[in-house]
Automatic annotation (TrEMBL), chains A, B:
Pfam families: GFO_IDH_MocA, GFO_IDH_MocA_C3
A GO term for molecular function: nucleotide binding
Oxidoreductase listed as a keyword: yes
Protein keywords: Oxidoreductase
Matching PANTHER family: BCDNA.GH03377
Domain called GFO/IDH/MocA-like oxidoreductase: residue spans: 160-276
InterPro entries given in the database record: Gfo/Idh/MocA-like_OxRdtase_N, Gfo/Idh/MocA_oxidrdct_glycsds, GFO_IDH_MocA-like_dom, Glc-Fru_OxRdtase_bac, NAD(P)-bd_dom_sf
Name of the protein in question: Gfo/Idh/MocA family oxidoreductase
Length: 358, 358
C-alpha cells in the first residue's frame, strides 16, 4: 500500500458512520488476562458503537467475577471447550482474541467459522502461514478481521503520521524506533511454544509497525542482529534484544530496537529539515511529541480526542461492521508485520541482509 | 583495552603534571581551514602548557593574516613545499595536523621524520595501513602521536564514562549513538580522494568512538547498511547515511547512525536499571545530560571545568611530552576506529555481518 492510499484510509478514522447505526456491536472477550481485564474491558464504557456481551475463559472463577462485574448472564459465559457454541448466540457479533500469541490463529479461525467478526491482538499470529489461514477463514465466512494496533487510533501517533506524510520536516530520510522493557520472569511470553518468540513478537513489533505506518511503505530489506544471554533463566527459549535495520523503497532507513532487558518507548522521524520525536510514543496514555525544525525544538500537542485509543479501536471495528467497510488495520496489516518479523529472525540467524517480498 | 585499564588512564587526565614543566610546548598548526582557525587556534589562550609557534599553509595570504594575528614571525611560517624544514626549528615541539583526511598520513609521517611530536585530527587516516605506518613512524622517531578525540577531554562525556563504568544504571546492555548533519555541497569532505569516505569518516566516527569509550570494549562484529541517493550531487563519490550495529564481547549491542542528510547529535546508554542520555553529546559546547533511573528522569550537570575541551586536549599532549607519558588517545585509538570503519564499509558493501580482529 502506498502512502497516499494509507493516508486516505486513515482520514476516515473517527469520521463517524454515514448511516447512523441503530445498535451497538456485541463483543465476546476471548481470554481474561491483564490486558483484557485492565485495558480493554473497562474501555467499552467509552464506546459509541460497541459493548461487551460475552466472555470466554478457561478459569470459571474469572467468568464468575468478571461476568458479575460486567453484567454478562451465565448463558453468555464460555469455556474454551464450548467456544464453538458462540455460533448459536446472535448477541455476539465479534470476538476480541486476547490469548497467548500461538493460540490466535486457532481461535480466529474458529470464530470466523462460527460466523463472527474478529478483532485479534498483535502479533496477529506466530507465522506468516497462520496469518494467511486467518485471512482466508474470515474471507470465506464473509466476516471482518482486524488487528489490535491501538496506536493507529491514538491522537499523537495520528498527528505524527499526518505531519510526516505532509513533509513537515522535509522528506523523511531516517527513522529510529525503540521499544523495550525489562521483563519479569515466569510468564507465558517467555515460553516460546506460547509466544512464538521473545521481545520482537511482544514489544519490538511496535517499532516495526511504527516504521511502516510512518513511512507508509513496505520494507524491501531487513538486516538484524540479536543479543541474548542464554544463561539468564528468562531467555532459555526466547530472544532478549534484536536490533533491526529496515530499508524502504524510497531509500529511508529505519533503525529499530526491540528489547526485553532495557527500557525504551520512542521513535523519531528525521527529515531533511529537522525531526519529529515521540517519547513516550506508544504507551497506554501519556504520549509526548517534540519537533525540531529550523533549529528550534518545541513540544507539540494534538487536540484531546473524544475517546481514548482503546475505545476508538473497539468502535472502529464496530463501525466497519455496521457500514461494511474494511478496517484500517485489517488482517493484511498483521500479515505484513509477520512477513518482516520472519525476515528479521532469518537475518539475525544467518548474519546477512534478507530481501523481502517482490 | 579492558574497561579497568581505560578507566585508570582516564583518571589521569587533567590531574596536572607531577614535575612542574618549565616551558610551554610549541605547536605548529598544519592547515589553516575553519576548524583550525576558529576552534583550535583561539583556544591556545586557555592552555597552561601549550602555545602556537608556527603555521603551515598553502595560502600565503592566510600565513600573513594569521601570522600577524598570532604573532608568528615569518621565519616560523611554512608552505607545504618547505614543510620538512620544521626539522631545523627547535621552537616547534609538535605539529597539529588539520588537513583533509587523505593527507594526514603523509604529514604525520614527515613530521615524525622531522623529529616532531604529532597531534592528528580524526579520522586518523583513510586506511588501516596508513594508521599503522603513522604509528610506526612516530615510534621509530621516539615521538608522541595523539589523535584529536576532543570529547575525551569534555566534562559531560567524562562523567558519562565514569557513570557507565560505575554501573550507575546497572550493567550496560544497549547503546544508541547518532551523529549527522545535512552537509553543504562543494567541499573537500564530499571528494573521496581527499576525504576517504562520506559521513562515516567525518561525523559517524563520533558514534563509533563513543560506543567504544562508553563500553571500554572493542567490537567483535559489525553489521552495516548504507543508503545514499547517488543522484544527489553531494553524494557522487561518498556515502550519505550508514547505520551500523556493533556487537561487543560483553553482549552489548551499539546501534549507531552516521548521516550527511539529517541532524543527529546524541547517545544513550541503556542499563538494566535505566539510561544515561546525552543530547547534544559531542558539540563544541552546550552538552546536556539526562538520566533515567528508578522511573525518574532528571538532568545531570558536571562541575564546570578549568579549561574547555579544546584547551584540555592541547594541554594533554603537551603534558605527555613534558612528562614522557602516553596520551589517552594515542595512534592506536585512531587505528582501532579505522579497523571498525573498514569493517563497516565491507559489511555495507557485502550485505553481511563482518567479524573484527583476533
Amino acid at each position: 500500500m502506498g502512502g497516499l492510499g494509507a493516508g486516505l484510509m486513515l482520514a476516515s478514522v473517527g469520521s463517524g458512520v454515514s448511516a447512523a447505526p441503530t445498535r451497538k456491536i456485541g463483543y465476546a472477550i476471548v481470554g481474561l488476562g491483564s490486558y483484557a481485564t485492565r485495558q480493554i474491558m473497562p474501555n467499552f464504557a467509552g464506546c459509541e458503537h460497541a459493548r461487551i456481551v460475552a466472555l470466554v475463559s478457561g478459569t470459571p472463577a474469572k467468568l464468575d467475577s468478571y461476568g458479575a462485574e460486567y453484567g454478562i448472564p451465565k448463558t453468555h459465559r464460555y469455556s474454551y471447550a464450548d467456544f464453538d457454541r458462540i455460533r448459536d448466540n446472535p448477541d455476539i457479533d465479534a470476538v476480541y482474541i486476547i490469548l497467548p500469541n500461538s493460540l490466535h490463529a486457532e481461535y480466529a479461525i474458529r470464530a470466523a467459522q462460527a460466523g463472527k467478526h474478529v478483532m485479534c491482538e498483535k502479533p496477529m499470529a506466530t507465522s506468516v502461514a497462520d496469518c494467511q489461514a486467518m485471512i482466508a477463514a474470515s474471507r470465506k465466512a464473509g466476516k471482518k478481521l482486524m488487528i489490535g494496533y491501538r496506536s493507529r487510533f491514538e491522537p499523537y501517533n495520528r498527528l505524527a503520521i499526518d505531519l510526516v506524510r505532509g513533509g513537515h520536516v522535509g522528506p523523511t530520510r531516517l527513522i529510529t524506533a525503540e521499544h523495550g522493557f525489562p521483563i519479569k520472569p515466569d510468564q507465558w511470553r517467555l515460553d516460546k511454544p506460547l509466544s512464538g518468540g521473545g521481545s520482537m513478537m511482544d514489544i519490538g513489533i511496535y517499532s516495526l509497525n511504527a516504521a511502516r505506518y510512518l513511512t507508509g511503505e513496505e520494507p524491501v530489506e531487513v538486516t538484524a542482529v540479536e543479543s541474548t544471554d542464554r544463561a539468564d533463566p528468562r531467555f532459555r527459549t526466547v530472544e532478549d534484544r534484536i536490533s533491526f535495520l529496515l530499508r524502504f523503497p524510497s531509500g529511508v532507513i529505519a533503525d529499530c530496537i526491540s528489547s526485553y532487558s532495557t527500557g525504551h518507548n520512542s521513535y523519531r522521524i528525521h527529515g531533511t529539515q529537522g525531526w519529529i520525536g515521540m517519547e513516550p510514543a506508544t504507551p497506554y496514555a501519556g504520549q509526548s511529541m517534540t519537533i525540531r525544525k529550523n533549529g528550534v525544538t518545541a513540544p507539540r500537542t494534538p487536540p484531546a480526542p473524544a475517546k481514548n485509543q482503546f475505545a476508538a479501536q473497539l468502535d472502529h471495528l464496530a463501525e466497519c461492521i455496521l457500514t461494511d467497510k474494511t478496517p484500517i488495520v485489517p488482517g493484511e496489516e498483521g500479515l505484513a508485520d509477520m512477513r518482516v518479523i520472519e525476515a528479521i529472525y532469518q537475518s539475525a540467524a544467518q548474519g546477512r541482509s534478507v530481501r523481502i517480498g517482490a
